UniProtKB/TrEMBL annotation:
<feature type="active site" description="Proton donor">
    <location>
        <position position="113"/>
    </location>
</feature>
<feature type="binding site">
    <location>
        <begin position="16"/>
        <end position="18"/>
    </location>
    <ligand>
        <name>N(1)-(5-phospho-beta-D-ribosyl)glycinamide</name>
    </ligand>
</feature>
<comment type="function">
    <text>Catalyzes the transfer of a formyl group from 10-formyltetrahydrofolate to 5-phospho-ribosyl-glycinamide (GAR), producing 5-phospho-ribosyl-N-formylglycinamide (FGAR) and tetrahydrofolate.</text>
</comment>
<dbReference type="InterPro" id="IPR004607">
    <property type="entry name" value="GART"/>
</dbReference>
<dbReference type="InterPro" id="IPR001555">
    <property type="entry name" value="GART_AS"/>
</dbReference>
<keyword id="KW-0808">Transferase</keyword>
<feature type="binding site">
    <location>
        <position position="69"/>
    </location>
    <ligand>
        <name>(6R)-10-formyltetrahydrofolate</name>
    </ligand>
</feature>
<dbReference type="GO" id="GO:0004644">
    <property type="term" value="F:phosphoribosylglycinamide formyltransferase activity"/>
</dbReference>
<feature type="binding site">
    <location>
        <position position="111"/>
    </location>
    <ligand>
        <name>(6R)-10-formyltetrahydrofolate</name>
    </ligand>
</feature>
<dbReference type="InterPro" id="IPR036477">
    <property type="entry name" value="Formyl_transf_N_sf"/>
</dbReference>
<feature type="site" description="Raises pKa of active site His">
    <location>
        <position position="149"/>
    </location>
</feature>
<protein>
    <recommendedName>
        <fullName>Phosphoribosylglycinamide formyltransferase</fullName>
        <ecNumber>2.1.2.2</ecNumber>
    </recommendedName>
</protein>
<feature type="binding site">
    <location>
        <begin position="94"/>
        <end position="97"/>
    </location>
    <ligand>
        <name>(6R)-10-formyltetrahydrofolate</name>
    </ligand>
</feature>
<dbReference type="Pfam" id="PF00551">
    <property type="entry name" value="Formyl_trans_N"/>
</dbReference>
<comment type="similarity">
    <text>Belongs to the GART family.</text>
</comment>
<dbReference type="InterPro" id="IPR002376">
    <property type="entry name" value="Formyl_transf_N"/>
</dbReference>
<keyword id="KW-0658">Purine biosynthesis</keyword>
């Protein structure tokens, strides 16, 4: 790996589809390379995908810490910092992080969220958009701050909500937009460009 590339650690909890799209984008003239894929879930599907792509993997199982979030995050930081990443990309990492963890990576951490923030922070975003009678839904990439899903929005992609949509059909239509948006934002963020991306 060239010393000119920034290093990106990607945190996941599941199948890792956004991780794969990010990793696949970091090739050729891209200014970054993935240095680690870490999961809080042993056996998360994304870990095998990362290994198959030649990316280092790690697991820090939150269940090993019996509710001690501080100790869990200490282990998380230790596992991440062993790879000295420049940027942390949360890609379906389903743990709420404390201000201490966020401060440790302040200004260097991105997250993708399946709603048009500031609408529908938290969970069940697609169902909430349908129930509210919204005409469109989508996804947002934002910088991570201590406020849940509340950091500066760096990009959004939109899809229409169709009359017969369910949460599942809407989620399936938003996912490809996530796979396009996150790499587009990351590429800019790596070089310090926080101009908003709208797809």
């Amino acid at each position: 790996m060239s010393g000119t590339h920034k290093k990106v650690a990607i945190l996941i909890s599941g199948g890792g589809s956004n991780m794969v799209s990010l990793a696949n984008s970091m090739v050729g003239d891209h200014p970054a390379r993935p240095c680690l894929v870490l999961s809080n879930v042993p056996g998360a599907g994304g870990l095998n995908k990362a290994s198959d792509m030649g990316i280092a993997t790690a697991v820090v199982d939150h269940k090993d810490f019996k509710g001690d979030r501080e100790a869990f995050e200490e282990a998380l930081i230790s596992a991440i910092d062993a790879h000295a990443p420049d940027i942390i990309a949360l890609a379906g990492f389903m743990r709420i992080l404390t201000p201490r963890f966020i401060t440790h990576y302040a200004g260097r951490m991105l997250n993708i969220h399946p709603s048009l923030l500031p609408k529908y922070k938290g969970l069940h975003t697609h169902q909430r958009a349908i129930e509210a009678g919204d005409s469109e839904a989508g996804c947002s990439v934002h910088e991570v701050t201590a406020e849940l899903d509340g950091g500066p929005i760096l990009g959004q992609a939109r899809v229409p909500i169709l009359p017969d949509d369910t949460a599942d059909t809407l989620a399936a239509r938003v996912l490809p937009r996530e796979h396009a948006l996150y790499p587009a934002v990351l590429r800019r963020f790596v070089v310090g460009d926080i101009t908003r991306v709208d797809l």
